Amino acid sequence: MRVESWLERAARRHPDRPAVGSTPYAQLARRARGAAAQLTARGVHEGDRVGLALPAGEAFCVALHGCLLVGAVAVPVDLRLGARERAAVSAGTVLAVSEPLSGEGGDAPGAAGHELDATAIVVHTSGSTGAPRPIELTYGNWLWSALGSAAALGVDPADRWLCTLPPTHVGGLSILLRSAIYATGVVVHERFDTERVLAELHDPGGPTLVSLVPTTLARLLDAGLREPPALRWALLGGAPLTPALLERTARAGVRVAPTYGLTEACSQVATHGVPLFCTGVTTSADGEILVRGPTVAPASGPVLHTGDLGMIGRDGRLAVTGRLADTIVTGGENVAPAEVEAVLADHPAVAEAAVHGREDPEWGEAVVATIVLRPGSRATAEDLRAHCAARLAGFKVPKAVGFAEAIPRTASGKVARRRLR
Q1: Do residues 403 and 373 make contact, with C-beta atoms less than 8 angstroms apart?
Q2: In contact, 134 and 180? CB cutoff 8 Å
Q3: Are residue 210 and residue 354 in the same domain, yes or no?
C-alpha cells in the first residue's frame, strides 16, 4: 500500500506550522525536495541505501526526508564511531552524505509517496552486548509506532518535541518521523547539554514533550528542574526508572511517562506499562518478553523474542525486570541486576549504580556493583553492602562494591555491562 509522503502531506495541510526549530513545513519540504534532486543527480535511485553521516540538526532532517522522497533507504551513521566501525555500518550504501544537502524547489524525483511494506531506514542497535546489528524498519513500522505513541500520549497540534537523543538511535529517529506524521514541531539538539535543556524546559513557550534517559533526567533534577510550564510529558526510556528517581520527579512536578521499547519494535512497545494499542505483549515460560504487531521489524518474524525479562500483572501492565543475558547466577540463585541497582539508587549518597556478574571460583558468579556518588556525598563499600543487606536476600547483596566517576553507557542510555566486566 502506497501512501502520501508524510512531509508533503504536512506541508500541504500546515505550510506555516513550525517543523524543525523555527523552520515551517513549507520551507522544510522545499529543502527536502532540493535534497532529493541532489541525491538523484548523484545516482541514487529508489531502494538504494544512503549513509547519513551528519550531526543531529536541521541538515540531518533535510537529508533524511530527501532520502524518503526519493524512496532511498536512509542509513544513519553515528559520528562517534571509529573509522572501521563507520565503514561496517555504511556497508552496502551507494552514497555517504557527510555535508548538508542544499538547494530548494523542484519536484521530488523517484517515489511518489511511501510504500508501507518497503524499508525506510536501517537503524543499528546500540551494541550493548556486541557489535551493532542492522535492523531494517519499514514505513509501516514507523507509521504504526507513531499512531501507537499518539494513542498513549495524545497529540496537540501545538506540540514541540525536544530531541536530545542521537538520530542514529531509534528513539531519536522516531521523534523526527512521528512529528512529520503528526505535522507537529520538533526541536533538535546536537547533543545533550544540561543547562541548555534546562533553559528550554523552563521557558513558558518551551517544549511540550521531551525524550530522556534516567541519567539525563537525574542531571536535570540536580540542576534545578522544577515544574516545567509547557511540558506535557517527559518520555523516559533506555533503562529502568528506579522508585527513587520517580519520587524525585513527582516532587519536582515533572510528568514522566516511563516507556519500554527496542530497535526491533521501532521504539515504543509499552508506555506506563501498557502495550501500545497495535502491539501484543506476552511472556514465555522463562519470563522472556515477546512482542507481536505491525511495529515489529519484518526480519524478526511474527514474534519478536526481545531477550528482556518481564512480568504482566493482573491489570495487564508490563513490568520489565531485566535482561536474560544479564541475569547473574550465583550459588544456583538468579539475580536481576536491575533489582539490586534500584536498591542502591535509593541510598542518599548514590547518583548512579550498575550491577553485573563476575566469575567466582566458589559461587560461579559474584554480584558486583559499580557506584557513582553524588557530589559532596560519602559512602563506603560496607555502607552500601549494609544498605542492600537490610533490603535484599543475602545472595543478592554485592560481594564487591567499586566506585567510578561515570557509568559506561550506550547511546540509548543502557548500562554497557560488557565494559564493566
Answers
A1: yes
A2: no
A3: no
Residue 8 is part of which domain span? 2-257
Residues 161 and 252 in one domain: yes
**Cβ atoms of residues 407 and 354 within 8 Å:** yes
Asked if pLDDT for residue 77 goes beyond 50, the answer is yes
Q: Are strands 185-188 and 160-163 parallel, antiparallel or unpaired?
A: parallel
Owner of C-alpha cell 537523543: 165
User: What one-character DSSP code corresponds to residue 298?
Assistant: G
Q: Is 220 helix (H, G, I), strand (E, B) or coil?
A: helix
Same domain membership, residue 340 and residue 253: no
What is the mean predicted confidence (pLDDT) over 84-98?
91
Closest to 212 (Cα-Cα) out of 230, 235, 229:
235
Q: How confident is the model at residue 17 (pLDDT cuts 50, 70, 90)?
A: very high
Give every CB contact of residue 83 below 8 A, 6+ residues apart in sequence.
none
Give tens-digit pLDDT for 237-270.
887 788 889 999 999 999 999 999 999 999 999 9
Residues 367 and 245 in one domain: no
β partners of residue 310? 320
Structural domain contains residue 291: no
In a domain, 196, yes or no: yes
Domain end, chosen from 235, 257, 279, is at: 257
Is there a domain that residue 110 lies in? yes
- Integer Cα distance of 319 and 258 in angstroms: 11
pLDDT at 105 over 70: no
Torsions phi, psi for 177 (to 5 deg): -80, -40
Indicate the pTM of the whole model.
0.84
Structure-block grid coordinates of residue 148 = 501507537
Q: Quick one: 242 and 343 in the same domain?
A: no
Q: Is residue 164 part of a domain?
A: yes
Cα(150)–Cα(182) distance, integer angstroms = 9
Q: At 179, which amino acid appears? A: S
Is the pLDDT confidence value at 62 over 80? Answer: yes
Asked if residue 98 and residue 182 are part of one domain, the reply reads yes
Neighbours of 156 (CB within 10 A): 12
Which secondary structure element, helix H or strand E, spans residue 313, and what is its range?
A: none
**pLDDT band, residue 128 (cuts 50/70/90):** very low
